[in-house]
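Quick check before the chapter quiz. The format below is the same one you will see on the exam, so make sure you can read both the input and the output lines.
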Amino acid sequence: MNSRLLGVLALLVSFSSVIADEQPRTYRNVLKPLDNPPPLLADHPEFVEPVRELKRYEAPILVNEPDADLSVRAWRFSYNARGIVEMPNRLQSKATAVIMVHPWGIDDGQGWTTPEPAGVCDFCTPDKNHLAARHTHEVINPFLKAARGKVPLVMYSLPGNEDPIRKKVYRSIRATPSDAERQQGAKELTAKLKNFEYKGQPLVETISLSSANPVRDYFRQFPGLDASAKYNNEGFWQQPIPVTKDIDVDPNDVVIYDSEGYEPLKKFLKANGIRHVLLTGYATDMCYCQTTAGYENLSKDFNVFLVGDASLATFPANNTPRFATNAHLSFASLNQLVTQISWVKFEK
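Here is the expected output.
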C-alpha cells in the first residue's frame, strides 16, 4: 500500500472520528434519591461552609470518554428537581486544563502592596488578603502540584496585558521565556513594584449632606468600595501584577492576560486539545465568573468543573469567607457543575 493511500485512509479515519464525536447521545435523566449523604464541600470548613440540602439525587454518568483516566464527581442544584443532583464523570486527563483565576500577588512580599491608609485591592483589606493567601498556600497550591504533570496545562489569569516585564517572567499563550529572561524579568519586576508609592488619600473627613437625601449623599461621597486613584494612588492598577508567591509556579505554567479577551484563550485551549477545565481561583462572586478565564466564558466552549473548595468569595462585613463562598457557589450550581478537590482523582 503506497504512502498516498495510507494518508487518505488516515484522513478518513480522522474524519469518521470527528463525525462520531458530533453525533448526539441520548442521556437518561433518571434521578435516584441518595440516602443520608454527607455534606458537600466539607473538607475545608474554615474557608468554605459545607453545603447541606434536604434532597440529594444520583444521576447517570454525564461525561464518559473512552480511555478516561480522570474521575471527577460533580453536582448541581435544580429547583425543578427540588434538590441537588450528583453525577460521576470520566475524562481524559490529556484533554483537561487546570486554570486559576486571579492569583494576585498582593501583600505577599513581592512588592505590590495595599496602599495606606485606606487603599483597597483583591479581598480589599490586608487582613483579608492574608487569609486568602493562606487558602492559596494550604488548599490550591497542593492541588495544582498534584495535577501538574498529569494534565497538559496549568494556567493563571492576571489583569492587564502581557507587559514587557511579565513577558520575561511567565510563559504565555505566545512564548516561553528563557531562564536568563526569567532572571532578568524577576529583577525588573521587583524594582518596578517596590519603586511605586503605595500611599493614597486618607478617608474623607467632611461630607456635604442635603436635607432631603442625606443617606444618598453620604454613600455617594463615602462608598463602601473605592479602588480609584483617590485611595490607591495614580498608577497602582497599571503595575505588573505578579502571580502570588503562595503558588509554586512551574516554568511550563501559562499566564493569561485579561485585556486580551476570551478568544485568544479559547483558541489556545482548543489548539492544545483541551475539552475540560477544572476551574479554581478568586473571587467566586466576581472575577471567577466574569473575567476572561471566568466560567461564564469557558462554559460556552468547554466542560467546566468549578472546584468549589479551591475558590473564595469576597466577604465584606465578616471575618470569614465561609458563608459567602457557600452562597455564591450554590447560586453558580444552578447552571454549572461543582466539584471538590477530593473528588478529582487521577488514575495514573
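If your answer matched, good. The chain has ten helices and 13 strands.
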